[in-house]
Inverse folding.
């Protein structure tokens, strides 16, 4: 592992200018957590879901309605004796009505519970999106580091191939080798230049993806270490942890609660509704021929509605809610199975990257020793130019596999952490405040009025 870290330090130092500001993976993750449009959009969605609770709680509160009507009324009266009388009246009425539901089959109470379960489910969805954003940031960071290292490795390979070609040409002029050796060296140099160009293209693409995910262009990226210390120590423990902590599983569990409670909301349509109404009004007439010019009214009414038959709508909605509840339970089981598969896959992949990295380190060491030996033997006439070129290509390929293995090692450890549901700001101890969705929830839960959001919009 120390060899891997040392190689990462070397490639990081070569890949970026020393004068640039150093940036660690933790800093990049913190910035992505703060600025990610995807994550901020999900947070806004969460805040919108919070509003379902005060909307449901409104069912407990009175509904107050004020009314005002006024206008012009033309009157033409014809009396016996052909006496005609006309008048223009200006009647108006003002009133206020208060409605209060006293009982609605527990529809309001169950609607509040549904809204609260929806809030909890959306919080888990937000946490799951946060895990995805952080994993994308890790992948973008490590891809830039790896592609920088691959670019430097290919550039070094091209420099070496140019040196081999120059040496071969001098030996050709001296009569030590044939034109075939020169052609072989030229062919390998052309291949190396093509590989260098491909590495440069991959580096440019990875930098742009880094900018998209993190929010800024990469600077002097520092080596990153795996986070195995934050994950469970055994595969069984990882599976068990995911079943209790992964946001997808917890969110699906809350969806079951939503569907189950929605059955009682649908059943409330079959129960009586009791309400009270208080109203007061004043009507004013301007017709002087009337015995009264204004009327004041006040009333208190109680109303009981008992559903007898609604054409089968409520019954159908209840059956529908029950089927939706069955579906949500099956989805929960499906999510559990998918999470288990993801954990096992992440676990074996993470273990596999350890083996691959160790093998790649040994391969680089052996390929380097072999290249030095082939060069000495070539100088003594025991090896041909193609042998040197093959040994150089073997070393370059080994370094490529080592760099790729180092990248995969870090990404796999973070993938495992996300698979068990622990890839978040708190567990990673990032230097950024954790977004707390419950803060907004408590700000709006008991709000009776107001159009402005807690953020002032």
């Amino acid at each position: 592992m120390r060899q891997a870290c040392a190689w990462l330090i070397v490639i990081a130092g070569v890949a970026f200018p020393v004068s640039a500001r150093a940036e660690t993976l933790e800093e990049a993750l913190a910035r992505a957590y703060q600025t990610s449009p995807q994550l901020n959009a999900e947070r806004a969605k969460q805040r919108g879901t919070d509003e379902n609770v005060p909307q449901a709680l409104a069912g407990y509160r009175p509904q107050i309605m004020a009314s005002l009507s006024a206008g012009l009324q033309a009157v033409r009266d014809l009396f016996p004796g052909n006496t005609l009388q006309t008048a223009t009246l200006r009647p108006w009425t003002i009133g206020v009505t208060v409605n209060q539901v006293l009982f609605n089959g527990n529809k309001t109470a169950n609607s509040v519970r549904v809204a609260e379960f929806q809030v909890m489910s959306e919080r888990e969805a937000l946490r799951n999106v946060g895990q995805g954003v952080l994993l994308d940031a890790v992948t973008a960071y490590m891809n830039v580091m790896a592609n920088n290292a691959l670019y430097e490795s290919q550039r070094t390979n091209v420099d070496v191939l140019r040196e081999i070609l120059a040496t071969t040409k001098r030996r050709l002029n001296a009569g030590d080798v044939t034109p075939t050796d020169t052609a072989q060296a030229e062919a390998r140099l052309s291949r190396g230049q093509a590989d260098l160009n491909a590495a440069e293209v991959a580096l440019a693409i990875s930098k742009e993806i880094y900018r998209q995910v993190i929010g800024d262009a990469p600077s002097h990226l520092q080596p990153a270490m795996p986070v195995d210390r934050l994950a469970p120590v055994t595969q069984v423990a990882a599976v068990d942890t995911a079943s209790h902590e992964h946001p997808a599983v917890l969110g699906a569990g809350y969806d079951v609660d939503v569907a189950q409670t929605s059955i009682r909301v649908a059943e409330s349509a079959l129960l009586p509704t009791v309400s009270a109404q208080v109203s007061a009004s004043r009507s004013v007439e301007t017709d002087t021929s009337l015995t009264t010019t204004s009327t004041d009214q006040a009333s208190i009414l109680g109303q009981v509605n008992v559903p007898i038959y609604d054409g089968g709508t409520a019954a159908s909605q209840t059956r529908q809610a029950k089927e939706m509840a069955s579906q949500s339970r099956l989805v929960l089981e499906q999510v559990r199975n998918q999470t288990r598969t993801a954990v096992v896959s992440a676990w074996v992949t993470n273990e596999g990257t350890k083996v691959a990295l160790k093998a790649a380190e040994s391969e680089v060491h052996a390929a380097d020793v072999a290249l030095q030996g082939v060069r000495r033997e070539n100088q003594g006439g025991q090896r041909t130019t193609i042998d040197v070129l093959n040994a150089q290509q073997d070393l370059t390929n080994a370094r490529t596999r080592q760099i790729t293995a180092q990248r995969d090692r870090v990404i796999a450890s973070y993938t495992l952490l996300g698979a068990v549901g622990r890839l978040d700001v708190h567990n990673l101890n990032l230097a950024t405040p954790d977004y707390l969705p419950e803060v907004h929830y408590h700000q709006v839960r008991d709000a009776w009025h107001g159009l402005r959001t807690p953020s002032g919009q």
User: Anything to note?
Assistant: The mean pLDDT is 91. The chain has twelve helices and eight strands. The longest strand covers residues 92-103. The radius of gyration is 38 Å.
